[in-house]
Amino acid sequence: MTAGVITLRVTRMGGGGDGIAALPDGTPCFIPRTLPGEEVLAAPGQRRKDGTRAALQAVQVASAERVEPPCPHFCEGCGGCAVQHWAPAAQARWKRDRLVEALSRAGYPAAPVAETITTPMGRRRRADFGLRREPGGIHIGFHAAGSGTVLDLAECPVLDPRLVALVAPLRALLRRLPALRREGSAVVNLLDTGPDLLLRTDGPLAAAERALLAAFAEQAGLPRIAWAGPGGAIEPAAQLGPASIALSGVPVAPPPGAFLQASPEGEAAIIAAVLAALPPRLAGRGRIADLHAGLGTLSIPLAARGRVAAFESDASAVAALAAAAGRAGLPLAATRRDLVRQPLTVAELAPFAAVVLDPPFAGAVDQAALLARSAVPVVVYVSCNPAALSRDARAFALAGWQVAAATPIDQFVHSAQVEAVVAFTRPRR
Predict the structure, then answer these.
(1) Given 2, 139, 334, 400, which is the most exposed site by the fewest CB atoms within 10 A?
(2) Is 29 noted as a catalytic residue in this protein?
(3) C-alpha distances in angstroms, 423 versus 126, 257, 346, 357, 403?
(4) DSSP alpha helices (H): ranges in 176-254?
(5) Which pLDDT tens digit goes with each residue over 272-322?
C-alpha cells in the first residue's frame, strides 16, 4: 500500500455529496466520489474544522448503487456535479432524507415529507461558466471541485443542449477578445427569445470588441449581450432584439444575468407545491405577500389566487416585475426592499392571509422569527439550503406552528443541492 493511503469504509453521505468515513481516531473523513457501504483506498489530507478531506485512490468494494457517470468531465473532477456515480433512485431518497433530517433538527421529527420530484436531464437553462485564458487557448466551463481551475467543456448532459452548443463559438470569440486578459465569467440564461449572455472580463472593452460582440450576437442568435468589466457595473454591449421569458404565461423582460429557476420543470414543480399549500379560500381580503420575489416566478401565479404584494431587493428585478404585471393587468404590487436588513415587521405582516418566503441560500433567520410571531395563517417557505431551512424553521417549531406539507424537488440533478417547499400553519388560538 502506498504511504499515506489507508483503507476506509464509507458509512454515510455528507451534505456536499462526499462519502463520509471515520479515521482510526474517529475523525470524520470526507471522500469525494464515494458511496455509503463502500470500502475504499483513500489518502487523507490536512485536517479542517469539520474533519479531514481525502483523495480517493481506488474503490475496493463498490456499492450496488454505483453507476457509470454519464459525463466524462465528472471523472476529470468537474465541480458542476457531485453524485453522477450514484443511481438516480438513491439520489432521490438521499435528497428526501436531507429534508426529513433538516425538519427533524428544527423540531419536526414527524413532518409529512413527500417523495422527491426529480427533473429531467438536459433541461438546465442557466449556466455560469468560468473563463480562463491559458497559453494553449481559452478554457470555458465549470470549475474543478474545490479548485479555481476551469475545466474546458466539451459536453454536459445536465445543461440544455442549446447552451452547450454556444460553448464552442463563444470560445472562438473570446480568443479574439483582448478584454479577457486572464479570467472572467459568462452567465447565460436561456430565454424564450434565445440565449441571453452576461459577459464579465478583467479588462476594458474597446469599441472594436463591441463590434465583435454585436457580430457574434447576430451569428449565434443572441438577442442581447451585456458586459461588466473590472469595475463591476453592467452595461449593454449588443442588443439585437427584446430579451424576454414567459413566467406562468406572462412575458417578463429580465435584466442581464437575472436569477431564473434552474429548469422549466423545476419551476413548475415549485409553483405547484406553493399553490397546493395555500388554503382553498384565503382569509380577509385574500392578500398574499411574496418575500424575495425576484422576477415574479411565484408572484405571478399567486396573483391568480389573491392580491399580491411582492418584495425584492434588486431594483432591476422589481422594475421588470412591475412592468410585466402592469401590462398583464395583474393584482400585483412590486416593492423594492432589502428584507435581510429590513424584514417585514409583525405589524406589517398582519394584513396578509398567506406569506411565501423564498430567501437566498443563507436563509432568512430574522424574517422567519417575525413570521413565527405574526398572525399570518399560512407561511410557505421555499428553500434551496436544508441547513438554513432547519435553522429558520426552528422559530416556527418553538412558536407551536405545524408543518402541513413538505416537498423536496431535485432540479439540480447530480448535484448536492435540493429545493424544498414547506408549508407552515399557525396554531389555532
Answers:
(1) 2
(2) no
(3) 27, 30, 19, 10, 6
(4) 207-220
(5) 999 999 998 887 678 999 999 999 999 999 999 999 999 999 999 999 999
- DSSP assignment letter at 14: -
Task: Name the active-site residue from 71, 81, 156, 384.
Answer: 384
* Whether the predicted pLDDT of 429 surpasses 60: no
Tally Cβ neighbours within 10 Å of residue 234: 17
The rounded percent of the chain whose pLDDT value lies above 90 is 93
Would you kindly state where each structural domain of the chain is located, as residue ranges?
A: 6-66, 88-120+258-425, 126-247
Q: Do domains 88-120+258-425 and 126-247 have the same CATH topology?
A: no
Q: What is the CATH number of domain 6-66?
A: 2.40.50.140
> In this structure, are residues 382 and 298 in contact, taking their beta carbons and an 8 Å threshold?
yes
Contact 394, 386 (CB under 8 A): no
148: left (phi over 0), alpha (psi -120 to 50) or beta: alpha
Residue 304 main-chain phi, psi, to 5 deg: -80, -10
Strand positions, DSSP E, 100-144: 117-118, 126-134, 137-141
Q: 98 is written with which cell numbers?
A: 436531507
CB-based contact 261:235 (threshold 8 Å): no
Q: Which CATH number fits domain 126-247: 2.40.50.1070, 3.40.50.2000, 2.40.50.140, 2.40.30.10?
A: 2.40.50.1070
Helices 386-398 and 365-373, packing angle to 10 deg: 20
For 11-48, letters b (16+ CB in 10 Å) and e give eebbeebbbbbebeeeebbbbbbbbbbbbbbbebeeee
Superfamily of domain 88-120+258-425: Vaccinia Virus protein VP39 (3.40.50.150)
Report the pLDDT averaged over residues 124-152: 93
Distance separating alpha carbons of residues 129 and 143, to the nearest angstrom: 8
Q: Which of helix, strand or coil describes residue 333?
A: strand
Alpha-carbon distance of 127 to 151, in angstroms, equals 14
Name the β-bridge partners of 359: none
Q: Which DSSP string do the residues of 300-315 spell out, in sequence order?
A: HHHTTTSEEEEEES-H
